[in-house]
Every structure is written in structure tokens, then in C-alpha cells.
């Protein structure tokens, strides 16, 4: 049941995006759709699906070149091509008869070992395969992706009573490892897990909004990041999903569920869909509407549900949200649950509905509580699922509030009340849907599980720790805000190196389980020292930074970096110096220092010059033939280019061909650990290079000539020119060198440090740093 080739039937928004994710993973895929009767191109719909995916924003493809892995066709001429597919998935119209007709055709041509799946979001899987052979039903398992499939981690895997458990297991492993998905095994019930509970929450939020007299914009403030949920909150999520989709899903669920599960839509919502035909982003109007002001700047208008007019309400402020700004999530959740006035009334109503329903659905939509939590986190962008949130508040407190409202407790909460237990997750245990404690099973190798065992933490600082990953491997983990790099982070890496040598470990992993690998250096600290004229201290700090980044390569044991998400500035420089990199496919890596008026000072400039020079043939590493390598490094750093994926990072030169790309971010620490173990036997400490060819004045002259032309043409600013000339000096190996000079890595590091400090002393750089810290945006001075 190994999946090496796949086929997707239906080239609409979801089908084409699923095909793109398969291609991202390196899986050849056949994409089929119907033939349009009046179009001479019989493959028009499939071709259009690929083109739509190529143009999608955010991008569906991690590298546009991967689109070549998709072969298009149609269901009349090319159905026979399905015989080569190891996995076939449909994403066609949501009509039961259409799906049944399709499966009859598929069974006639698919090979007997192929796994068959439906991406249906609502039609029960067992109904689709009625009338199919026992063998076909054994190999059929639902696979419900969330849109967009590349970015939303959740994949609901839905076996039917006839599905072979080995098929469920094999497909889940493929989807998690190869496609990078977070797997939730759902029961084959209406709405499955995420939509059943998520749509219930949206519907109930609308009802409570009307009761409390709030607006959609106010509700989105209350149910967004302040509560640990996505920026799109409730009504922006509805617009993105499509109000018609919610309308139909809520209607179907209302018919398929008991009366106490209230999926009744408000009159205003029904009017939007039935009368106004305002369906959200797909029609340009929903609860919000994008427009442009007289200057062409995008403006978001809010819908007034009393008048059905769109209004510019400015920045909506909500007192309860303002009161919890800057507090950690647990404190925010507790404060919002206890808030006063109509905002508190709304929040308690919505949260209690969600708690009651999640508990009622335990054992119905899925057989594990953590699957329900994960479905809401991975499918809707919540930081905590409903059971984790109840743990934050205290389960007994939630139970008391539900009973005070006159609710009948679901069996799970009744069992919790009887036991007196105040948390679903407790130590290494979690309760079952019946309320019985059971050992918690993590869905994958995850660092937070290691933290439950304090003996795994070898050394701890406020902003970083050294953790024993087992099997003779240490982890240097950063856990500061945005993982900005300061003294704690640098000293922890030094601690880890020493522990590896002193205690006989195999090697070291650099990684963490934060939101991002690292957003770069601690800019407030650097700026304050510069403004205080602490130049000796800054010089020492940059030297230390260079020593620590380069120690990843020049240590007597292997080091492996595990970057993901934002890997910027200093974070990128650490990654560049590791012996090996295991990168998350979603890697946004770049040397972005020019945005704050600096150049990479931790070896990044040196490393990119070295890499691009080494890519040239030995005969090209002298004289003017070096210029393309210098120019490539200059363009990459000088434009602060950031990769949009690990595949692009490899194309840009940030990753080597030998580095590893993991589709699932949650696997990178485990993969990095295995790489350390593989590298350790016979590992030989490399020596710093002494033979790096540079062009000196010739390269400086060529780059300056181009820069001044760009400056005169208005493409770069006055201060861009200042920063770029310092960058050119380092990439050229300094002034005074001839065309055949060779320098050491240390020479380039010294030039980096000198340029970094020179720029830091200039008013223009300090203005850029101040502006970035204040606004989060670069200043073009």
C-alpha cells in the first residue's frame, strides 16, 4: 500500500490544490475533470485547475516547477490512466448520486491495491460506497482536507465500518509523513469532527451576538487572537469559507442531528445568503467588504446588520479585549470568561456552548479527546482546543457554570463531576470519552511531551534550554519571544557543545517548538548599546555571535539545524553553518538585515559568498569569472530575499542539495535527531577555509557602477546606497585585493563585523531600526 503515484478527480478549488500538495511532496499525480461540451479543449477544466493553483495567493505550489508533476486529462478519454495510481481521491460536486456513479467507473479501472478516498466535507463515506464490491469497500477511506490544503494542517481520515484498519493506518502514515498533515481519525458521522463542532460554534456565536447586541466586528475582536484563536475569528472565517457553505452545512447538520444541537441560522444570516446573495469573499461582499479609498488604498467596510449597509467603522475597540492585551493566553482566557457586561455575557454564552457541545460529541465524532482538540487547532487555527481551554479554566468551574445555566451535563462532564477531576489532561494521562484516565499518546515526536519529564532538561536559562532527546543527542532549544537571539540563546548553544563533549553525547540539534525558528537578533539591545556608544561591548558581542554560529560547523561533533517558519537574519546564519539541515517545508528563510540598515554579521555574508563561489567550476574561480557568484550573493542579501518554502530556499542557495526537507513540521526534531546519529560515527571536525577566492577592487567597482545607476534611476534610496556599498566591500574580500587573491573565512568574518559596526554607528541605520521596532515595517530613508 505504498503510495508513489496518485490521481485526483475534480479540478475545482480543492481538487487542484490537493494535486498541488501532492506535487509539492514529489508525488506524480493525474488530475482529471469532466469534458465541457462546447469547448474544443477536452482537458480545459483540468488545465484551468493547474493554472488557478499556480496563480493562487497564498501560493498552492512550494515551487512552481513542481506543477510539471501534474498530468492533466478528462474522465472520458483518460479514465484508464487511473490504473497506475496507488491512491485515488475525488473532489467533485457534493451530490451523493454523482459520487456513486464515479466510484462505479473508478472500480472498473483502478488496480486492486489502490487506496480510494473522498474529500467530501459532509456526505457520509459509507453511503458513497453502497453497491461497491467488498474489496473496494475495504480499500476506501475518507480524506477530508481543509482549504487551503498546503497551509491548513488538518486532514480528517474517516474509515467506514468496512475499511480495513491496515488501509487506515497506511494512508494516515503517508498523509502525515509525505503530505505533512496532522491526522485526526474521525468517525463517519455528519460533519465529522472539525466542521461538526466548528460550524456549531459559528452558528451559536451569531445567535449570542444578536442577544448581546454586538456587531460582527466586535465579535471578531472577542473571538480572535485575544481568545487564542485565528485572526479571522468568527465572521472573517465565515467570509473566507463562504457563507453559502456554512448555510448548507448548518442546514444539513440541523436535519441530521438531535433538536438540542441547535444549528438554526439567524434571520440576518439567512437574508445574506437567500436574498442578498452576499456569500463572502467569493462574491466580494459578506460580513465585510473590501473597497479602495481615493488614494487606491484597500479599506475594509463592516456590515451593519440592522440596515444591511456597509460602513467604515474605523478600528473597532472592545474594552474586554483591551484589558487583556499583553497577558499570556491562560490569563486572557480566564479574564475574558469572567468579563462583565454584554461582552462577558456573549463570551460565556459562546464558550459554554462550545464546551457543552465538545463534551457531548466526545466518543461520537472521534474516540479520543485530543483528536477533537487537534481538529479545532489544526483546522481553525486555535491555540487551544475546547478540552485544553476547559483545563485552563478548571473543568469543575466550567461544570458549575453549565449547571447554573440549567444545562444537562453530557456523560463525559457528569463523569468528571463525579470524579472531582479538574483537568482532562493531567501529567501523562488524558481521560477517555467515558471520563476514565488513560495514558496520553502523542500523535508524533513532539518536544512538549519531553518537557513533562524534568530529567530531560539538562540545563535551563530564561530564554533557552539544553534538553536530552535520548539516544545520545542533545537539543539546544530557544524559547524567547519570537526566539530573538540574545545572550541566553548564544550561551545555551555553548553550554550544549560543552555537554556533548564532556558527557560523551553523539551530537547536537538546534531547534525548538515555538511559532518560528528565530526572527533574528535582539534589535532593541543592539540599538540601545549603539546609542549609548558601547562600541567595545558591541564588538565583543558580534565576535561572540560569530564564534557561536560558526561553532555549528567547527565543533568536534555533528550539529544539525531544524528550522521552520520565520528563519531570519541570525536564525538563518545559524542554519547556514550546521553540518546538516532538516527544514520544514514551510520555511521562510532570509538574510534580511539590510531592512534595518545592516548587513549579516554572524557569518551569513561570508557563507553565501563561499557557497556561490564553490558552485562554480575550479577554472572559473579566478578573476572576472568570479563576478556572477559575487553578484548572486549581493542580490540575495541586498534585496533581503526571503524564501516562500524550503524548496525555494534550496533554489536560492540557503539550503544545500544534501539538506533534508520534511513536509511535516512536527517531524523535524525527530528527523534531525536521526541525522545526528547517522553523522556521528567517524565524524571528523572540519577546518576553517583558507582558500576563498575574491575579486577585491574589481568587484567593488563593478557593483558600485551598477548601484549608482540604480540610484540615479530612483530604484534605491540614498541610504540603500550606503548599506549596499558596505555589503559590496565584504563580498569583494575588502579593498586592495587583486583578481587572484584568496582569503580565509576569518578574514571575511572580520570584514562583516567591521561593516556591521560601521553601519550601526550611522544615523540612517539607527533610524531604520527604530522605525522597524515601532511599526514592524522597513524605513526607506
TrEMBL record:
Positions of the 3-hydroxyacyl-CoA dehydrogenase NAD binding domain: 5-188
Catalysis: reaction(s): a (3S)-3-hydroxyacyl-CoA + NAD(+) = a 3-oxoacyl-CoA + NADH + H(+)
Signal peptide from the UniProt entry: 1-25
Segments forming domain 3-hydroxyacyl-CoA dehydrogenase C-terminal: 191-289
Enoyl-CoA hydratase/isomerase domain ranges (all copies): 480-605
Keyword terms of this UniProt record: NAD, Oxidoreductase, Signal
A Pfam cross-reference name: 3HCDH
PANTHER family associated with the record: 3-HYDROXYACYL-COA DEHYDROGENASE FAMILY PROTEIN, 3-HYDROXYACYL-COA DEHYDROGENASE-RELATED
Name of this chain's protein: 3-hydroxyacyl-CoA dehydrogenase
Native species: Deinococcus sedimenti
Amino acid at each position: 500500500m505504498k503510495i508513489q503515484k496518485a490521481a485526483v478527480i475534480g479540478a475545482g478549488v480543492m481538487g487542484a490544490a490537493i494535486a498541488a500538495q501532492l506535487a509539492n511532496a514529489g508525488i506524480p499525480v493525474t488530475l482529471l475533470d469532466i469534458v465541457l461540451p462546447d469547448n474544443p479543449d477536452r482537458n480545459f477544466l483540468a488545465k484551468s485547475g493547474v493554472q488557478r493553483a499556480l496563480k493562487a495567493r497564498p501560493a498552492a505550489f512550494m515551487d512552481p516547477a513542481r506543477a510539471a508533476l501534474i498530468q492533466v486529462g478528462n474522465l472520458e478519454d483518460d479514465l484508464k490512466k487511473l490504473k497506475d495510481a496507488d491512491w485515488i481521491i475525488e473532489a467533485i460536486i457534493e451530490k451523493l448520486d454523482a459520487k456513486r456513479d464515479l466510484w462505479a467507473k473508478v472500480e472498473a479501472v483502478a488496480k486492486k491495491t489502490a487506496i480510494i478516498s473522498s474529500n467530501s466535507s459532509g456526505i457520509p463515506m459509507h453511503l458513497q460506497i453502497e453497491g461497491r464490491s467488498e474489496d473496494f469497500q475495504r480499500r476506501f477511506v475518507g480524506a477530508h482536507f481543509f482549504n487551503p490544503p498546503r497551509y491548513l494542517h488538518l486532514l480528517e481520515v474517516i474509515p467506514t465500518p468496512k475499511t480495513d484498519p491496515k488501509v487506515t493506518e497506511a494512508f494516515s502514515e503517508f498523509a502525515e509523513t509525505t503530505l505533512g498533515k496532522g491526522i485526526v481519525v474521525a468517525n463517519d458521522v455528519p460533519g465529522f469532527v472539525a466542521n461538526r463542532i466548528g460550524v456549531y460554534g459559528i452558528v451559536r456565536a451569531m445567535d449570542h451576538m444578536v442577544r448581546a447586541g454586538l456587531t460582527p466586528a466586535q465579535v471578531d475582536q472577542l473571538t480572535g487572537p485575544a481568545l487564542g484563536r485565528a485572526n479571522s475569528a468568527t465572521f472573517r472565517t465565515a467570509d473566507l469559507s463562504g457563507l453559502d457553505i456554512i448555510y448548507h452545512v448548518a442546514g444539513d447538520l440541523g436535519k441530521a442531528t438531535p433538536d438540542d444541537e441547535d444549528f438554526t441560522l439567524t434571520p440576518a444570516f439567512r437574508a445574506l445568503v437567500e436574498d442578498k446573495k452576499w456569500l463572502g469573499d467569493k462574491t466580494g461582499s459578506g460580513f465585510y467588504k473590501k473597497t479602495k479609498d481615493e488614494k487606491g488604498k484597500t479599506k475594509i467596510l463592516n456590515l451593519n446588520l440592522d440596515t444591511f449597509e456597509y460602513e467604515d467603522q474605523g478600528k473597532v475597540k472592545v474594552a474586554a479585549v483591551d484589558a487583556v492585551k499583553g497577558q499570556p493566553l491562560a490569563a486572557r482566557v480566564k479574564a475574558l470568561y469572567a468579563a462583565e457586561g454584554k461582552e462577558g455575557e456573549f463570551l460565556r454564552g459562546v464558550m459554554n456552548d462550545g464546551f457543552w457541545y465538545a463534551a457531548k460529541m466526545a466518543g461520537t465524532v472521534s474516540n479520543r479527546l485530543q483528536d477533537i482538540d487537534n481538529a479545532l487547532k489544526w483546522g481553525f487555527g486555535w491555540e487551544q482546543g475546547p478540552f485544553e481551554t476547559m483545563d485552563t479554566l478548571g473543568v469543575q468551574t466550567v461544570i458549575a457554570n453549565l449547571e447554573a445555566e440549567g444545562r444537562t451535563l453530557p456523560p463525559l462532564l457528569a463523569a468528571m463531576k463525579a470524579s472531582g477531576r479538574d483537568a482532562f489532561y493531567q501529567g501523562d494521562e488524558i481521560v477517555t470519552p467515558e471520563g476514565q484516565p488513560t495514558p496520553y499518546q502523542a500523535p508524533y515526536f513532539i518536544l512538549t511531551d519531553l518537557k513533562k519529564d524534568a530529567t530531560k532538561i539538562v540545563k535551563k536559562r530564561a530564554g533557552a534550554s539544553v534538553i536530552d532527546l535520548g539516544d545520545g543527542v542533545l537539543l539546544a532549544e530557544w524559547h524567547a519571544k519570537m526566539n530573538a537571539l540574545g545572550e541566553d540563546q548564544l550561551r545555551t548553544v555553548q553550554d550544549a557543545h560543552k555537554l556533548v563533549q564532556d558527557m560523551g553525547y553523539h551530537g547536537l540539534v538546534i531547534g525548538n517548538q515555538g511559532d518560528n525558528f528565530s526572527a533574528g537578533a535582539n534589535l532593541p539591545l543592539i540599538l540601545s548599546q549603539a546609542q549609548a556608544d558601547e562600541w567595545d561591548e558591541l564588538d565583543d558581542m558580534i565576535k561572540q555571535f560569530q564564534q557561536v554560529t560558526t561553532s555549528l560547523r567547527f565543533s568536534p561533533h555533528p550539529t544539525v539545524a531544524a528550522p521552520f517558519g520565520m528563519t531570519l537574519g541570525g536564525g538563518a546564519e545559524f542554519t547556514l553553518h550546521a553540518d546538516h539541515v532538516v527544514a520544514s517545508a514551510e520555511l521562510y528563510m532570509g538574510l534580511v538585515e539590510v531592512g534595518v540598515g545592516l548587513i549579516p554579521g554572524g557569518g551569513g555574508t561570508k557563507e553565501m559568498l563561499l557557497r556561490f563561489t564553490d558552485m562554480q567550476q575550479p577554472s572559473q574561480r579566478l578573476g572576472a569569472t568570479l563576478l556572477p557568484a559575487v553578484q548572486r550573493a549581493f542580490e540575495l542579501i541586498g534585496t533581503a530575499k526571503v524564501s516562500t518554502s524550503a524548496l525555494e530556499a534550496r533554489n536560492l542557495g540557503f539550503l544545500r542539495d544534501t539538506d533534508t526537507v520534511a513536509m511535516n513540521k512536527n517531524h523535524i526534531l525527530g528527523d534531525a535527531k536521526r541525522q545526528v546519529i547517522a553523522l556521528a560515527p567517524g565524524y571528523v571536525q572540519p577546518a576553517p577555509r583558507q582558500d576563498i577566492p575574491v575579486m577585491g577592487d574589481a568587484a567593488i567597482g563593478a557593483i558600485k557602477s551598477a548601484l549608482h545607476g540604480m540610484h540615479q534611476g530612483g530604484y534605491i534610496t540614498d541610504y540603500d546606497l550606503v548599506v549596499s556599498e558596505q555589503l559590496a566591500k565584504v563580498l569583494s574580500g575588502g579593498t586592495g585585493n587583486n583578481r587572484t587573491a584568496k582569503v580565509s573565512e576569518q578574514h571575511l568574518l572580520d570584514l562583516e563585523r567591521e561593516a556591521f559596526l560601521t553601519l550601526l554607528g550611522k544615523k540612517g541605520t539607527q533610524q531604520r531600526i527604530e522605525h522597524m521596532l515601532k511599526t514592524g515595517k522597513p524605513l526607506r530613508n
